[in-house]
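Hey,
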Amino acid sequence: MEEEVDLRDYLNVIKKRWKIILGVFLSSIVISVIVSFSLPKVYEVKLMLRIGKVKDEFLETGNTVIKVFESRSVLSDVVKRLNLPVTEEEIERISGKIYISESVGTLEIKGRGKTPQEAMNLVNAVADVILERHQQFFNKGQEILEGYILRIEKQLVKIEEDIVKLRKKIKQNELTTSEAKAYIVHGYLDSLQRSLDRYNISKVELSEKQMEESYSTMPTCIIVPPMMSNIPILPRKKINVLIAAFVGLIVGLGLAGFLEYFEQSENKN
């Protein structure tokens, strides 16, 4: 019959092997402290952009921006703005320090560096690339919208001229008693009504486009500016030490149990 192992057996093992458990525990903490203090400090700066719109449509989705920053050409542009050599190694290094996340209509950009200024320069370079890219999209969209508004305005001027001419012709012929001229006047009246209908429709369309230009069209802009912090985000020394202490305790207990089991097996043999 197998012997029952209760809590007192575990406590006896701990009491017997406490030096090993404590040694592993303290060693883990000491190693964690040494490693944590030897790791380079990493600083982070972040900013937030609001993605611009043209006619109430985003210039670019957040997911598209994130994918764009996976391309070598865009990353090369960032490296150039930092006045660094455009090499594969530098592009790869910079890529690992850029973090972009998106929400509805906004982008959060984080840049990391060995110093607060390096992180600030990186996040500004990334933001500049996005702002310039979106400004190009915005200008094209704005140009198309303004061209459309201009065409409607010209169309309204032309319709107004037609209305004036038709009213003049109607006035010239409204006192006639001739049946033929009365028929012509009737045709002028029909044309006038169609012109007035077209004018009203164009007016409404112009008003809608002007509203789109005023309230539904805006460029991409920074809504939360970057701020430098002298407090590094890495290494997380306290967390590292706590994790090391927990792991050291588990390893120490496991080693104590293994040694106890090995010793009892030797005694039985």
